[in-house]
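Incident log entry.

Two folding requests arrived from the same account within the same minute. Monitoring flagged them as a possible duplicate submission, but the sequences differ. Recording both here for audit purposes.

Request one:
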Amino acid sequence: MKVELLDSTIREGEQSPNVSFNVNQKIEIVKSVDSFGVDFIELGHPAVSPDVWEAIDQISNIKTRAKKLIHGRATKSDINDASTFNVEWIGIFFGTSDLSLKHKFGNLSNEKALNHIKESIYYAKSKNFKLRFTAEDATRTDQSFLIEVAKCAQASGADRFSIADTVGVLTPESTKKLINTIKKEIDIPIHIHCHNDFGLATANALSALLAGAQTVDVTVNGLGERSGIPPLAEICLALKEIYKVNNDWDLKNLYKLSNKIEKMSGIFNSENRPIVGKNAFTHKAGLHSRAVLKNPKTYESFPPEIIGRDRYITIDKYSGQDALKSRLKELKIIVNEEDLKKILIEIKSQPEKRKINDLELLEIADEILKSNIKIYIPTEVEAIVNMELDNAIYTTRITRWLMSLSQLKDVYEVAGDYDIVAHIKAKSIKELNSLIEEFRVKEGIKRTHTRPILKGYSN
């Protein structure tokens, strides 16, 4: 199976709501996805805004392994814009469904639509472009007309034909049928552009490749209009691990690339997102953890190390002795079987704890092993905690997490040496200390400064 990846992070990805990359960020993204090993990079639509134009201008002069492609409408003005840059490929699109012809183009007839497509391709080819023609909303286009469009594009000189599932209505079964049908009618390579409105984008894209499509559009973290398009990570790992497709993708840096785009876009992966989500290699249930400690293959379809990640076994009421013993050993605490059982009983007696972090585990172990010094703990305490975040971390992500904690009374985003100020009301110094330690180990929080409240005043 011949497979090509077209990365559209700085074009389709920037069409995600509330996302805007600056020029330097786009340059960094292009260099990163090119180093990763994609085959095409879609640079953007010059007519959108001056900064998009500026980014395309600068990126067009950067040497890349990947082919660079400018996105635009099937119009002379957009083609003229693209011709001002040092880019070999252009991708022009035109809506072909009845909905598009009626509502976007004012009841344009099929005959006039075909003529427009032909003339646009002729004009772009006269500018010496290599050209990908995209039938927008192809999957809601009458199939007989879509075949006419594909044949027209090829006859007019298009080098590639792209099928856009613009509103994500394909299924893996219908994708296979559609690609097989179009492939019988044209000889040029077929691209597939799937949207994720029903959560089927990755499955549909893989189905298209298996049916004979050559190129699939992806973005890092699946960014894109509405629910996005297939994520780079899901497509690459499925192709490598399930379909055994040979490639030279730099999978070791995939997780770093995902994290970089999280920070640049401000859109963060859900914890259970496949491959790059926080929980993708986290094991919880006792039987699972015990098996993973013996042989990770028992509950992992591929090792996290190939994408630059580590596995993690969480400790909570579901944990078994093997997982607990392993974690304690990592913390350089050696216990006998009797004490191990006592520690586990204590953990399981705290079902309200979603997770026992290492500091809490150390405290429990000290209590059981009698290695701690007892102190008097007041019944209630309030404090103000200032937090400085890591550079480029999305502040609202941390504030939202803080507000989910029951001890938080108020949270403020502020200017100055710190980024966040939190007002905490804890039941005890012990609870306050536990909470502050959790802040200190929380990814994204660089440092904290805590001040206990001695008195409060109000009008």
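Request two (distinct sequence, not a duplicate):
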Amino acid sequence: MARIVEPKIEETNTESDEDNWTIGAEPFKPIDMTQVANKKGKIAAPTSQAIKRAADILRGGDPIGLPTETVYGLAADACSDDAVAKVFALKQRPQFNPLIIHVASIEMAQTLVHMCPLARLVAEHFWPGPLTMVLPRLPDCPVSLLASAGLDTLAIRIPAHPVARALLDEVATPIAAPSANLSGNISPTKAQHVADQLDINIILDGGPCKVGLESTILKVDDNQLILLRPGGIAVAHIEQAIGHAVDPLTNPDKITAPGQMIAHYAPSKPIRLDALDVAASEGLLAFGKPLPGAKMVANLSVGANTTEAAANLFAMMHELDASDCAAIAVMPIPDEGLGQAINDRLQRAAAPRDKS
């Protein structure tokens, strides 16, 4: 009989309300430090003491593990070339792939990038939250050029997670924070996912990531919004909220933002998309009523809800990848709402990887 993993998150939304922050259906509660343990001993509850320690580590030039509402980040001082270089080295990330810069406020963002009226409108609607804008760097922008891969633009956002915001307030400097995993692997949505891959001084444990997908990335070019990466906020929601169209990317072969590499977010096992049947040796990533016959079933959303599925995607991919299933079969997911971002991640996860 197949092992069945049902989703624990019944409802999520991407609105940021710090006073009503929830992880899944449960209120956010800091974890008792005495109850936290992992194989490397680096996971820490997000107490004020731990946040101050993490800030000291950042100021000393070393990266830390940071929860956000999207995925866990490998955070470093964005204005230090050495600290940013450590992030690339730890992740084994190609240096042509830029990083997202996290800031505490719109005012801090305006010291780094030029924000036209349209960019300001987007920020006022969706920051803090899972939306990144790619904007022109100011001439005196202190962020390391390595973080922006030498481009004249910067990918920037304000995170909504209270732990990330507390750390940003404590360090009072921009933070570069790509996903806290080895480059190309499944993104981490739990602190243990980070500890399993990276040996770093501290990982602040903010619980499971509420959104569970990386941020939506928009390039703001004059009076045009261009979708560089689908993510935690659906395009239709952006267009409805601000009354402005979001155009597709016309040159997808040129990397201008994170998450655009063809092979990305990949498990170690083979992955097969749009499965209409499943072998007895395969694990099934289900959506809605599962197909029969799988060795193990992880159901992204029993009710076929794409928001719930997005929140569960990476955690369930981690679980299937750690199982003894020979491969992973993925049921079809509608390409609407957050389904667009889910399918983007799955297509990149299934793409052939360069083994050289």
